[in-house]
Hints:
The protein is an alpha/beta fold. The protein has ten helices and ten strands. It has helices at residues 44-66, 85-102, 111-117, 167-177, 185-192, 215-231, 235-266, 281-294, 303-306, 311-322, and strands at 4-9, 14-21, 24-32, 75-81, 106-110, 135-140, 145-152, 155-161, 270-274, 297-299. 49% of the residues are buried. Bound molecules: 5'-O-[(R)-(carboxyoxy)(hydroxy)phosphoryl]adenosine and zinc ion. Zinc ion (ZN) binds at residues 111, 115, 141, 275, 308. Zinc ion binds at residues 111, 115, 141, 275, 308.
Amino acid sequence: MSITLLAIESSCDETAASVCRDGHILSNIIASQDIHSRYGGVVPELASRAHIQNIVPVVDQALKTAGCELSALNAVAFTQAPGLIGSLLVGSEFAKSLSLSLHIPLIAVHHMQAHVLANLIKGSTDQDALPQFPFLCLTVSGGHTQIVICRSPAELKVIGETTDDAAGEAFDKSAKMLGLPYPGGPLVDKYAATGDPLRFKFPEPRIPGLNFSFSGLKTAILYFLRDGKDKDPLFIEKNLPDICASIQRRIISILINKLKKAAGETGIKDICLAGGVAANKGLRAAFRETGQGLGWNTFIPQMEYCTDNAAMIAITGYFKFLEQQFSPLTVTVSARATW
Length: 339
Ligand code: KG4
Ligand code: ZN
């Protein structure tokens, strides 16, 4: 029997739906919420309201693109945690209603597990083959930075994570200090492309083990920009590409050095990237180059499977379906990331 599954992702400011059949993604629809850029960050209440407006057309589009009737669905999956509670509730209540009315199982999915398993979507990465278990994954998003060992789709262990800001936050907060609009990560990436990454030096924190820290870098950037502007009020405007390239280089070196340590300690050679920051061109290039030098098999999902999307919820839901890991209608959403 083939397994057709609808997945819904609504953890933050993207309303997304995907249909997957037997592990193949048939549709991957995303409605982004532009309203937040004028506030310099995601406003939770506005996000919830936008999800309510978007969810029916997004699900409808996902079904139409996949050429799938509601009656063909075998299960419905949704993001259960972590995320903004109001946003998660819109997706979970919608999924529960479908589960109840169509008499199909409900599958609760962890957003961070799904980012990792995006690497298991067939045709998702830059490689023909899928990563072999056990593999390592560096998950870098707006809210999380983790190194995970994945022994099977269901067995994931976090072996390193940030003690303060996430890598995406480091990009977004740096961009904010530079006067760039939210979310600034992609803009830092864009300006960095023409800048000199060695022009300005920022510190690399000494954090023991496999954990990360980005708050010291944030403070260093704040003081660096203050001093620069004291000397020349147009310091940022005159040096934007070099500043972006230098900040990006340091964020990347913090990430790659810990990943090298994790690979060295575990002896694992199949290594994946995941999360929104995996869309960063500098990180993708540094990851590939490091992998070539150290004999890793590197895997990077296409951009649409890096940033928040429902295809990653669908593939995770598919593996949970195979294990019959269904949830009761009483399952609750959670803002926290506990696995
Ligand atoms: O995974 P994601 O879409 O959402 C969360 O689960 O947080 O990640 C969003 C984060 C934001 O911080 C955004 O600025 C960052 O990913 N991001 C980037 C790039 N594209 C997205 N950061 C640096 N360079 C990029 N090209
Ligand atoms: Zn995410």
